[in-house]
Design goal:
mainly beta, 6 strands
Length: 96
């Protein structure tokens, strides 16, 4: 299964600043419908992400009833930060 959408980038402060793309409500609902078959625990869902010319694997994290996609420093386009919007494509392995 694949989903493609535009997402808002947020900064989630912790011991160091982290950036995440917020999965929109409709796409979060679709992911939530399949979460039982996708999660490896704690609500985290493994995913392959395409962002511009980058392709990487990570896990979606549940947040505020939806999901966020971590945007690792190594793959973030230069200058991308909180308040920006990104186009993402997520790929899920629903067959395990």
């Amino acid at each position: 299964m694949e989903l493609e959408f535009t997402a808002d980038v947020i900064e989630w402060r912790g011991p160091a600043p982290y950036y995440y793309a917020v999965v929109p409500v409709a796409e979060s609902d679709a992911i939530g419908d399949l979460a039982g078959a996708l999660t490896y625990g704690w609500g985290c869902i493994p995913v392959e992400v395409r962002l511009a010319d980058q392709r990487f694997t990570t896990s979606l994290f549940p947040k505020d009833g939806g999901y966020v996609v971590p945007l690792k420093a190594a793959i973030r386009p230069p200058g991308l930060g909180a308040g920006d919007r990104v186009r993402l494509r997520l790929g899920f392995d629903i067959h395990g």
